[in-house]
Structures are given as C-alpha cells and as structure tokens.
Amino acid sequence: MKLKPLKFGNVTIDFPVVLAPMAGYTDAAFRSICKEQGAGACYTEVTSAEGIRRDSQKTFQFLEVSRLDHPIAGHIFGKSVEAMVEAAQYIEQLGTFDWIDLNCGCPVKKVVRRGAGAALMKEPEQIGEIVRAVKKAVALPVSVKTRIGFSPAFVDHLTIAEIVEEAGADMIAVHGRFACNFHKGEADWEKLGEVKQAVRIPVIGNGGVNTPEDAAEMVRVSGVDGVMIGRGAIGNPWLFGQIKNPAQPAPDLGKRRAVIETHLLRLVELTATTAKGRRCKAGYNAEQAACLRFRPHLAQYIKGLRGRRDLLQHLNDLQDVKTVLDAVDNVLEKNSEII
After folding, report:
1. Count: domains in the chain
2. Cis peptide before 141, with omega less than 30 degrees from 0?
3. pLDDT tens digit sequence for 134-171
4. Which helix (DSSP H) or strand (DSSP E) does residue 272 occupy?
C-alpha cells in the first residue's frame, strides 16, 4: 500500500499511518514504541480541557512528550468553547506539540454525560463554534477526530465534516462506527469515502484496521489520505512497520520480548517523572504503578501464546519489573518450540 505524505498547516506526516488517541494506552511510553515500529504520527491520550483549565496535575501528565513523539497532536475534549480555547492555548504555549486535535467522537459515558466527545455530534453547530474559536486563538494547525454519527438516528457524518471544514479545521479523522456501538461491529469504510468526497481537507480513516490487509482495503474502499490505528496496535506495534513494508515478517519471540521489556522500562521512567502517578494515592511506588498500568498491554503482547491464561490469572501479583519479565519469559519458553 502506498500513501502520499499527508500535509496540513505546517505539519507533514511522511507515512500517514498514525496511532489513535486512547485513554489509558497512548502515553509517551507506548507512543515511543509505536514510533520506533513505524507509526507516522501520534496523539496524546484523551485529555480533559477542563482539567487543563483547572491546573489538574493528573491531567498535565497526559501531556508528557518524548523526543520520539513527533509529529504529535495534543488531543483534548470538552463542551465549553472557553475551556477548549484555554486548553488549546496552554498546549501551544508548551512548545512541544505539532498540532491540536479536538475530540468530537469519544463514546465513553462519563465524557458523553458532560456533553463532550460523541455528544457533540448531536450539536454540529457547537462543533463549528469550538473549531472556529480554537483556530482563532492558536497558530498551531487544528484537526478534529469524530465518528460517522452518534447513532443510526444521527447519521450526520457529511454535515459534521462540512461544518468542521467550513470552521477552518486543517484535517479531520473519522472513525467508521457509530458512537453508540463503541468498537463493536464492522467499520463502515464506505461512509469514510463519502466524507473524503465531501471535503477538501485531508481525511484520516479510523476503525477496523487490525492487519496490513485491512489498511490497504480501507484506503482502496474509501480513498482516505491516511489510516489511524487504535486497538489493533495494542500488543502489536509491529503492525505499523508491516503496513509500510508488507514483506516484514511477524516478530519472533526474542523481538517480542525485547519490546515488552523496553516498553515496561519506559513506562516506569515515565511514571516516576510525572507529577503524580495515577496510583500513587493508593500507596504504590512508581515501579508498582507502572507494572499495574502495563497489565492491559501485557495481556495483548502475549495474545495467542501458550501459557497466557495462567499469566493473566496472576496479573495482580506482577508488581515489579523482574516479576513481570520472569512471567513473560515463562510464557515465551513454553512457546519456543512452536514459534
């Protein structure tokens, strides 16, 4: 699959297959792994505009950026125009981000209840107001991440895309599922194609890409300018390199183990340097907190391997790096003769 470099504003993504923003996953440690494996760009975790506005230390840790991240978007959500503007200005002032992305598609209930994320798709004009205000307030390029609709009763993908473009956004990324379906069912890549035909700004397609073949098919069906990968990259960051070079083989056990260790050690370092680790208040030190945060990644890194079930049953006991890696080595040893 050949994709042209994607350009918007002053940003160029040479290989426009990018890592999606995912709460609880796309911190600086995981982003660095995906970048090294070929991801063309990254987004931060889903970051609260109100949290930034209120000087929340927990929120600020989402904005930790490493030298490997670029190009990277600061990804924010909120309903208030004022909060989104202030958050965007704060991100710009950090001087560490290449562009700002506005979340208009997160289906998580606590976000939707606030009238933010996917709830904004019920108020397309509010999306336009937010985009216009943020564009006026910052010099960085501004993009929007959304979905094809809130539900089948709100199939407004074209209306929203046109409003986003008219309001001045530089790029749009669209997930091919309704928000009410979260990640269930097939992504509708044909609707992504309809968006691509309706606007002149670049369009990145999201949803349902788990293999190199999926990425190629999405581009073929929809004609999008880039591909965004979320859950398909968890435990499989090699997917980016395989899309770039289909001849690239799947990682052997040694390479898998090396990436697991590197990812975990970077997460420990990140947790130690953030102002307040997410689990520090529960009495965990940085290493323990990182190992606990690593659990969902670990479960995917060893997916399909013999011995995985036993390891998963003892996840709560894996609270230091040595114990985690010993458990990984035990699983890999059981698979050395079959992979």
Report:
1. 2
2. no
3. 999 999 999 999 999 988 876 679 999 999 999 999 99
4. helix 253-273
Please tell me whether residues 228 and 314 are part of one structural domain.
no
d(CA 239, CA 228): 12
Alpha carbon distance 55, 58 (integer Å): 9
Using CA atoms, how far residue 113 sits from 49, 201, 267, in Å, is: 15, 30, 31
Q: Give the tens place of pLDDT for each residue, 177-191.
A: 998 888 888 999 999
Side chain identity at residue 83, one-letter code: A
Q: What is the spatial distance between Cα 167 and Cα 175, in angstroms, rounded to a whole number?
A: 20
Residues with a catalytic annotation lie at 106
- Structure token digits, residue 145: 């991440």
Among the listed residues 174, 179, 163, 156, the one whose alpha carbon sits nearest the alpha carbon of residue 223: 174
Statement to judge: residues 176 and 325 lie in one domain: no
Q: Which domain holds residue 219?
A: 6-244
> Which residues touch 106 (CB under 8 Å, ≥6 apart)?
23, 46, 77, 112, 116, 117, 118, 179
Tokens encoding 338: 């079959």
CB 44 within 8 A of CB 99: no
